[in-house]
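Why does residue order matter? Because the sequence determines the fold. Keep that principle in mind as you read this record.
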Amino acid sequence: MNLPRRIDEILKRKEQYLLNKEKSLNSVIVKMQVQLLNKVTSEIIPKLDIENGVIKSTLKNYRLLQSLDKMYKDFGEVQRLAFVSEIGKATNGIASLNKSFFSISMGLELPGLFESIIKGTTHKIGMRLGLTGGQIVSGGFLETLIKNDSLLLELKQYLAQAVTGQVSTKNFITGMNSIITGGGVDAGGIEKQFKRYAHDVYMQYDSAYSTTLADEVGMRYFIYQGGLIDDSRDFCVAHNNKVWSKEEAAEWLNWTPSIGEYPAGYVVKSKNPDEVPSYLDYPGYSPLIDRGGYNCRHYIGWIMDALAYKLRPELKF
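Structure:
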């Protein structure tokens, strides 16, 4: 599909920005794991009651479970600031890129009214994410994510088992390292907790932001962009680089691979092509926000009616 040069350029800029920010957030997460391991190594391990290199089954060691609770809470309070700061910078950039895109796509300098729409949309989508004014909203999505205690529970269980089983300190440290930072192809504990969201939080924010702006200015058509890779889902292959309407997107809730139109020679991946794929069939799925489901790398570029009709003439009738 041949897009106008300026629209194509801003869409590619946004795609690259999202990828770069995802990598940056992943780097923050990996650093958090190293810092957590250092904290456990310096605050918990020296307090263990050990004899001949083996952790003893003593009341003192079991009480360290409480120390682990406090240490983990203190760590979370400090480290989430870096996490939130990184997300805040990225969402500001997404908002700025969307403002530029809409200015180009609409073919005019943004009027004063649009500036107020931008401001309102930023606040609305920030509340959806659970972040406003650089601060986490109590009870919001980000706070719930950051306060997830699954890793803490795993660490406490491992410590309790080590004390009961009287394992060697060497094996204990190796196991703790594996849980927190992973190893080889295995992700670390914080990576497991955040990895999916590190991607989805930016892609969904971008989709929600641009869709809200489109609603405010009455745009009805968009381009489904993002390119294809070997393991692209049937849904994304069928929709990639094509123009769609809001009404058509509403039907994605019932989309099945059997109705998709694919490039010549493409072999459908779904084992049940007449069923809605699991990556679309889940509670809360919102077509224009979630697109091809969790971890989808496609994004939506809203365009004016005239360009939509030029790129896909049948929409005009």
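The chain has two domains: 1-218, 219-317.
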